[in-house]
Amino acid sequence: MVRPKTNSIRPSLHPAASAALESSTPPLKFTFNPNNTDEGCIKSYDTNIMGKFTCHNLKCPNDGRKNVWTSKKIAITVRLYRDEKYNVRVYHQHCKLCHWVWKPKLDEGCYAARIVYRLKTWSGCKHMEVPPYRKGNGKGPHISKLCEGCKAGHCTALGRGRKEEDKSEGGSSWTHISG
């Protein structure tokens, strides 16, 4: 049996982030690294975004309907590579009814805002508005045992705050950022 993927990258969401970066002051240009690997990564940052999951398992015990859930805590790791390249690892979640792992449909505005903010921060831009981290109004608690980001140690729901790593020459290791 093939093990389901526990994370993915989304090159299809790059155009929205790229357009926002190019229209910013100062304009910035980054290209998307299509390789879902830490190899060559010089900085990384753990945060979360919002989205929706749909369980497509026909044997899921949900009275013949698809189990659908939203999450405001979808773990992501933004990764910076040399030559102004980046990508974003998106961690998947498991259906609480059948435990199959599923890839989320992401809130594209939230995705672009997080990526633009992080890349601008790494580029030395100052006085930026922090993208909102919407709290509350969730339909339930974050269930760590169903979150691949938690299992991999990259989910902000673990209570350690956001996490940044500088892997460049002379860079430090992990820095925990509260909030």
Question: Top keywords for this entry?
Answer:
179 residues; alpha+beta; eight-stranded mixed beta sheet; two-stranded antiparallel sheet; 10 strands; disordered C terminus; zinc-finger; zinc ion binding; zinc
Task: Provide structural commentary.
- GO terms for molecular function: zinc ion binding.
- Keywords: Metal-binding, Zinc, Zinc-finger.
- InterPro entries: ZAR1/RTP1-5-like_Znf-3CxxC (IPR027377).
- This is 3CxxC-type domain-containing protein.
- The chain is of the alpha+beta class.
- It has one domain.
- Helix content is 16%, strand content 30%.
- The protein has 3 helices and 10 strands; from the N terminus they run βαβββββββααββ.
- The strands form 2 sheets. Strands 1, 2, 3, 4, 5, 8, 9 and 10 form an 8-stranded mixed β-sheet that branches. The protein has a two-stranded antiparallel ribbon with strand order 6-7.
- A hairpin with a 7-residue loop joins strand 9 and strand 10.
- Helix 1 packs across helix 2.
- The protein starts with 6 loop residues before the first strand and ends with a strand.
- The C terminus is likely disordered.
Give a short overview.
With 179 residues, the chain is α+β, with helices and mostly antiparallel strands.
Global Rg: 17 Å
Main β-sheet, in a few words?
A: 8 strands, mixed
Shape: elongated
What is the β-strand count? 10
Topology as H/E string? EHEEEEEEEHHEE
Q: In the residues, how many domains can be counted?
A: 1
Structural class: alpha+beta
Low-confidence stretches: 172-179
Beta-strand content bin: 25-35%
Distance from first to last alpha carbon: 40 Å
Total of helices: 3
Helix content: 10-25%
Mean pLDDT: 86
